[in-house]
């Protein structure tokens, strides 16, 4: 039997349809009896949907150049 903590940890895999049939069964059984987890799942879905609608903002050219310089400098120094 899955706990609320287990179910919350599996939500991303659930939404990506990556759960095994056995885990999916336990996940579904838990949701049948746990209204807080159903509410959490609905909020999680809505948040994912909303963030997917947000337009990306292009990086300003100056910031891109500075980032490139930093990365080249660190790579040439062998800094992890």
Structure description:
With 80 residues, the chain is mainly α. The chain contains 4 helices and no strands. The longest helix is centred in the middle third of the chain and has 19 residues. It has one domain. α1 packs parallel to α3. The mean pLDDT is 91.
Summary?
The protein has helices at 4-15, 21-33, 35-53, 61-77.
List the secondary-structure elements in sequence, H or E: HHHH
What does the overall shape look like? elongated
Largest sheet: none
Mean pLDDT, all residues? 91
User: What is the helix fraction of residues, given as a range?
Assistant: over 70%
Gyration radius, rounded: 21 Å
Decide which structural class fits the backbone: mainly alpha
Could you give the count of β-strands? 0
> How much beta, percentage-wise?
under 5%
Number of domains: 1
Q: Give the N-terminus to C-terminus distance in angstroms.
A: 43 Å
Count of runs of 4 or more consecutive helical residues: 4
The low-pLDDT segments are: none
Defining key terms:
mainly alpha, 76% helix, 80 residues, elongated
